[in-house]
Design a protein that fits this description.
15 helices; single chain; mainly alpha
Length: 330
């Protein structure tokens, strides 16, 4: 792999991040809402008494930098994101965006990373076994069920799981990240509560994602089975287990890894609607609430983290893939 190739990848990475960051700045401002006015109106309703809305609005805008020209806000924004300083939350002032992201990020990573890896491993193996000639017929009969799972969205499966396991059977809580009144702590009891609350959200993600991974792997495995090297290895008497893993899955799973890299990029924002359905305290819920409040700075912070993660994942995969598949080096 030449240094020039790596430099081109890095330049593309910087261009993608810069373009996405620019869109991330301008698009929330096209909504047409005034988040400062909405925030002050909410304060007046809950606080009671008379509030000088105009003076308070000007003070808020000056403190948040919203009284400056748009081009000046844009330049300040670019300088801030380089330092990973996303400013204050408008809806939760004086809490900073970094504090909100730091509170939500571990919940989303813990849920999504675990669920994504489980779904990837099970789905890829299941998809390969469905079309493998020497596999049991049980796997081929699972195709209709896998197609259904691949077509049903995460949040719909989540609602079904809530109805069955939370309302009817009462085995799991309806939502939340831990019991009401509990204080987060590094203890086995609290860890057990977290796992208990995360079981249904994780299961909904795993069930829906397994279908997608299995269908993709099924199509790629069909292509691999028609290759000459598989036929030649089978004619040489290679053991079935080695033929399946070394010649079949090893070559069919390479495109899956690229998709997995993109999926890892989306881990930081989670399945937004799943987190909203389960009231899970992750980045997806934070982003959903921020859009409702038109909280520009939180939206910018969360989306920029998403863009950066996706772009970094693809950069790593573009560098690693030629090492995994020598054919790509050309």
């Amino acid at each position: 792999m030449s240094p020039a190739y790596v430099l081109r990848l890095v330049a593309m990475f910087v261009l993608v991040v810069y373009t996405a960051a620019t869109l991330n700045f301008f698009l929330p401002r096209l909504i047409g809402k005034d988040p400062v006015a909405e925030r002050i109106a909410a304060m007046a309703e809950t606080g009671g008494g008379s509030v000088d809305i105009e003076s308070l609005s000007q003070a808020y805008r000056a403190r948040l930098g919203l009284d400056e020209p748009l081009w000046s806000q844009y330049l300040s924004y670019l300088g801030d994101i380089v330092r990973f300083d996303f400013g204050f939350s408008i809806a939760n002032y004086p809490v900073t965006v970094n504090e909100l992201i730091a509170q939500s990020l571990p919940w989303t990573i813990g849920l999504m990373l675990t669920a994504t890896l489980i779904a990837f491993l099970i789905g890829s193996l299941l998809g390969a076994l469905i079309v493998w000639p020497r596999a049991s017929r049980i796997f081929s009969n699972l195709t209709p069920m896998i197609m259904v799972l691949g077509a049903v969205p995460f949040y719909l499966i989540g609602l079904l799981l809530i109805d069955l396991f939370a309302f009817r059977l009462g085995w799991f809580p309806i939502g939340g990240g831990y019991p009401i009144g509990a204080r987060p702590a590094w203890s086995l009891d609290f860890a057990g509560d977290v796992l208990h609350h995360a079981a249904l959200p994780a299961l909904s993600i795993v069930l829906a994602a397994i279908g997608v991974w299995a269908l993709q792997m099924r199509g790629m495995m069909v292509t691999v089975l028609g290759e000459d090297y598989v036929t030649f290895a089978e004619a040489k008497g290679v053991r079935p287990k080695r033929l399946f893993f070394r010649y079949g899955m090893r070559n069919a799973i390479l495109p899956q890894l690229t998709t997995l890299a993109l999926t890892f990029g989306q881990v930081v924002t989670g399945a937004v609607l799943v987190e909203v359905v389960f009231s899970y305290p992750g980045l997806g819920t934070l982003l959903f609430q921020s859009i409702g409040y038109s909280d520009f700075f939180v939206i910018q912070g969360v989306v920029f983290i998403l863009v950066l993660t996706v772009a970094a994942s693809m950069l790593i995969m573009d560098i690693v893939m030629p090492l995994l598949d020598p054919r790509l080096r050309k």
